[in-house]
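Project standup — Tuesday

K.O.: blocked on the structure for the chain from last sprint. Re-posting the sequence here as requested.
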Amino acid sequence: MYKKLLIAAILVSGLGYLFALADGNMLLRWILKPGTIVLMIILASTAAREVGTYRNWVIAGLFFSAVGDSFLLMQGTEWFSFGVFSFLIAHLIYISAFITRWRFSAVHLLYLIPIALYSFFLLRGLHEGMITKNAGGMWGPILIYVIVISLMIWSAVISRSWVAITGAILFFLSDSLLAWNMFVNPIPLADFWVMVTYYTAQFMIAASIERPPHHKNMITA
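H.V.: unblocked you, prediction finished:
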């Protein structure tokens, strides 16, 4: 019952943030943006002991995500850089989590192709946009970030969990929308779609802690 209440609280908090975003209410944004992730941390902490190692890595990733959320609420390039760094750490931690469930097969190397192609075209567009907007100083950190989040998706694929894979892909989509809107071209309702995909991604990664019986959510090679 308490898990259902936590899930309901996460949903209400996430929706509340979207309304606060539309209304421009900074106080509620400060409370709800990281607060929604904190609720996911509490939910993740209720997972069974037998998934303790994976659970602990995911909780750590959620924690650094909440820190990153707080930095991104502040104005200024330096705070944005701190936010990017915090999320970079979160992705490295998620990679560490997925590694604990790796079930590698040579066929998984094929999955690198679509991930690499998407990353290449995204980076090409971002680089052109950054040069145009005189934001070339961010190119290095963004390049490293895209490489790491691409590896995070691939590590999720090798874990063979559809839940984790979906979360990882949505996380990349969220970050792609944010970066494209910031450095290339404005995207209608960008803030809304960034947060919807982001919260869904984080929830899916948190939900991947609990494995269904007989690993029914696993991809078979």
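K.O.: great, moving the ticket to review. The longest helix spans residues 77-99. The CA atoms of residues 129 and 183 lie 5 Å apart.
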